[in-house]
Amino acid sequence: MTPRFDTVTIIGVGLLGGSLGLAMKARGMAGTVRGVGHRASSLEQARAVGAVDETYLDPLEAVPGADLIVVCTPAALVPGMLDTIRPVCSSTAIVTDVASTKAAICEHARNTWPAPTRFVGSHPMAGSEKFGPRHAFPELYEDCVTIVETGGHIAQDAREAVCALWRALGAEVIEMAPDVHDAGVARTSHLPHVAAAALAMAAIRADGIRPLIGQGFRDTTRIAASRPEVWRDICLTNSRSLVEALDELIRNLGDMRNAIDEGNAAQVEAFFREARSARLEVVDQRIVDQKVQDE
Question: Domains plus CATH for the chain?
Answer without folding.
Answer: 5-176 (3.40.50.720), 181-263 (1.10.3660.10)
